Amino acid sequence: MYQIPRGTRDFLPEQAARFRRLEAIAAQLADQYGYGEMRTPIFEHAELFERSVGESTDIVEKEMYTFFDRGQRRLTLRPEGTAGVVRAFIEHKLYGGSLPAKYYYFGPIFRYERPQAGRYRQHWQFGVELFGAAGPQADAEVIALGWQYFRELGIETSLVLNSIGCNQCRSRYKAALVAYLEGRALCPQCTQRLERNPLRVLDCKEESCRQAIAEAPRLSEYLCPDCQEHFTQVKGALTSMSIPYTLDHRLVRGLDYYCRTTFEYKTGQLGSQDALGGGGRYDDLVELAGGPSLPAVGLGLGVDRIELLDPPALKMGTERRGVWLVTIDPATDQAIALAHPLRRLGVRLQYDLLGRGFKAQFKQADRANCRWALIIGPDELEQGQALLRDLVSGEQQVLPLRGLEPSLLQLEGVK
Description:
This protein is α+β, with helices and mostly antiparallel strands. The protein contains 16 helices and 16 strands. The chain has helices at 13-32, 46-53, 58-63, 82-91, 136-153, 167-181, 188-196, 207-212, 225-240, 285-288, 303-308, 332-336, 339-344, 358-367, 378-383, 404-409; strands at residues 36-37, 43-45, 65-68, 74-77, 101-110, 122-131, 158-163, 246-247, 259-266, 275-281, 296-302, 323-326, 349-351, 372-375, 385-390, 396-400. The strands form three sheets. Strands 1-5-6-11-10-9-7-8 form an eight-stranded mixed β-sheet. Strand 15 (385-390) and strand 16 form a beta hairpin. Helix 1 runs antiparallel to helix 5. The protein starts with 12 loop residues before the first helix and ends in a 6-residue tail after the last helix.
């Protein structure tokens, strides 16, 4: 007996339908905003993620699925979506086209971490990336797209916002933060972070670290005038769009490539696992990955955690749909021959494949939640007609076999 690997899950038909709906809403919304779909491989060269995400991040140090293939190439299952899109953007020289360039993706992400509510070792993300626009309006557009996605799904979220400044801002702040934290009680991991990536201490969930940073200097106090003005305009744009937000000076996100604006969408319905996704600006990443110096901003949303909230937009309809063809020998072959042209025209149609009797076929139609039963037996074939029974009201009508297609296409609920 084989079992599914820990941290993964099967999508049975009903849940797969829910994910198709989540993806369809994402695709429609991205199209409204002018974002084209980008599909990148689920594995890339490991160096892409190590360089882009940051070697001192938890993702690179502990969470990546890295392996050697038969050609001894070192590959990694993608732990996030942005780096692959940036690589494709550079490799195909898309920066030579019209800017800004906008892309979205929807697909699986792989991280070796402890499974938790709505987070799996193979989980799914919906993300967007915008290249070539440095202004605060680009930040606001990406944030608004994510905000609108939750509105379309019927989910209440809160938006948390921060600015972590440019490289110069962060250099000054890191020196002040390290000076403040030296000698204070930190968890073993943050003691190492203090030397390699001190900003990550701000995001630690250990109580000792949270106490240690309670009175720490705020990054907002170290922003240069340009970064301050950029952040002011981002907040102003969100206000003009009636998108509420709260400020959190500790919000730094978990990837090294972020700069200036960072943001998260949160929910109060999942306890401590409250983040549904987020993003920020990453103006240095395209150049770092081998492309031209080009500003960029993006987001990634955790689809599994969103689905866990059971969004109203995913409520599966209970109305009966489609047609069940009820037939019996010697009419079976002739009756079933009608199914293919009906399906080709768009009729949702099923029929018995196990040789059941009339009564059992009606029970199966009920289990399949069909609205109509199309009855074609030997007598009906001889008379050139079929009986159509409404399985809700029990009413029946006679349909000529020659005019079956337009009659069924006009039925409510048959598409």
